[in-house]
């Protein structure tokens, strides 16, 4: 089994999920002024809307239990989104998800940096129509 190279600023555009993220982010931004990782997973077909709603109602112990890809890929998608959002000059913003005043958990491990990565939204600054194309895009 060959392992993928480490995801870095120098190579992130080479990963297979990157074009999917580049295609999906504008669809999300057409509806609202921010991109949330949970919505990206839904748009990419990796999280069913019904499963997302069950998690939001506190019926699922952690979001990773219902994401339809392995956790390595999910983490890689979160990093790719962060790099792409940086290219678009979107501002990262921490968002708290909770149900009935209880925080919702994203990851099985509960590791704070991973929880923060799942809850980080990327917000459009200025006008939505002023979004730049990412470097290297046509």
Helices and strands in order, then pairings?
Layout lengths: L17 H14 L2 E2 L1 H7 L5 H8 L14 H17 L3 E4 L3 E2 L2 E2 L8 H8 E4 L15
Antiparallel strand pairs: 1-5, 2-5, 3-4
Give the H and E element order.
HEHHHEEEHE
In what range is the share of β-strand residues? 5-15%
Which parts are unreliable, with pLDDT below 50 for 5 consecutive residues or more?
Answer: none
Radius of gyration: 15 Å
Fraction of residues in H or I helices: 25-40%
SS elements, strand count: 5
Across the major sheet, the strand order is: 1-5-2
Structural class: alpha+beta
User: What best-fitting shape do the alpha-carbon axes yield?
Assistant: globular
Distance between the termini: 35 Å
Whole-number mean pLDDT: 91
Number of distinct helices: 5
Number of domains: 1
Largest sheet: 3 strands, antiparallel
Describe the structure.
The protein has 138 residues and is an alpha+beta fold. The chain has one domain. The chain contains five helices and five strands, in the order αβαααβββαβ. It has helices at residues 18-31, 37-43, 49-56, 71-87, 112-119; strands at 34-35, 91-94, 98-99, 102-103, 120-123. A three-stranded antiparallel β-sheet has the order 1-5-2. β3 and β4 form a beta hairpin. The longest helix has 17 residues, at 71-87. The radius of gyration is 15 Å and the shape is globular.
